[in-house]
């Protein structure tokens, strides 16, 4: 697993613009190296703002959108089209505005599919398994970029502190009793997250500062799930100044003016 690098931007707006630029560049690089790319989306404030910035960027057409697989790190177990679904936010911000191959948009199904949360998690695990190649050495693709928002409690995806999902070794799990509504969710687990080539944690706001500090410390992921957010080749913590305000000075960081 890689050691995190921290990049700090002036404020949440600048952060979303800068992450958008990074995503575009990373996807273009991956596509020029191997023809296609994979991107795992997150819900949450910075995650969705980043997608809106990608949609607004003149550089977005540098991406070959039809050769991109879109996945989700987690989903709120709500019917298709519900405003609280991460999918709905992502579609509105970006996915409805670019020429994606619908077969490559891998949605975590909600209750309107007729599946229970457990069945939906298992179906997603099967979809990941089918997409994995021998060189991925695991039950899921080694995603090019996996984006993760983070809550003030240091949750990432729908992995909340001290909850059973943090001990689960299956690739995808149903989460019940989430402390943040809605209570039922679907989430990738840490082994799949840590199999991604690059994991980028995005966070803004002073309410996240304590969680950011802990996520960059030696804390264990059961207490601090974001401390387990590490990519195989690269881990980035992409922050605004407020969320980075409690990082120890010993951690090197680059600030935008
Ligand atoms: O519920 C969720 O929250 C987190 C973080 O959201 P934020 O609004 O505090 O940035 C998000 O990463 C996760 O995907 C989502 O389901």
Automatic annotation (TrEMBL):
<comment type="similarity">
    <text>Belongs to the glucosamine/galactosamine-6-phosphate isomerase family. 6-phosphogluconolactonase subfamily.</text>
</comment>
<protein>
    <recommendedName>
        <fullName>6-phosphogluconolactonase</fullName>
        <ecNumber>3.1.1.31</ecNumber>
    </recommendedName>
</protein>
<dbReference type="GO" id="GO:0017057">
    <property type="term" value="F:6-phosphogluconolactonase activity"/>
</dbReference>
<dbReference type="Pfam" id="PF01182">
    <property type="entry name" value="Glucosamine_iso"/>
</dbReference>
<feature type="domain" description="Glucosamine/galactosamine-6-phosphate isomerase">
    <location>
        <begin position="11"/>
        <end position="235"/>
    </location>
</feature>
<dbReference type="InterPro" id="IPR037171">
    <property type="entry name" value="NagB/RpiA_transferase-like"/>
</dbReference>
<dbReference type="GO" id="GO:0006098">
    <property type="term" value="P:pentose-phosphate shunt"/>
</dbReference>
<dbReference type="InterPro" id="IPR005900">
    <property type="entry name" value="6-phosphogluconolactonase_DevB"/>
</dbReference>
<comment type="pathway">
    <text>Carbohydrate degradation; pentose phosphate pathway; D-ribulose 5-phosphate from D-glucose 6-phosphate (oxidative stage): step 2/3.</text>
</comment>
<dbReference type="InterPro" id="IPR039104">
    <property type="entry name" value="6PGL"/>
</dbReference>
<keyword id="KW-0378">Hydrolase</keyword>
<comment type="function">
    <text>Hydrolysis of 6-phosphogluconolactone to 6-phosphogluconate.</text>
</comment>
<dbReference type="GO" id="GO:0005975">
    <property type="term" value="P:carbohydrate metabolic process"/>
</dbReference>
<dbReference type="InterPro" id="IPR006148">
    <property type="entry name" value="Glc/Gal-6P_isomerase"/>
</dbReference>
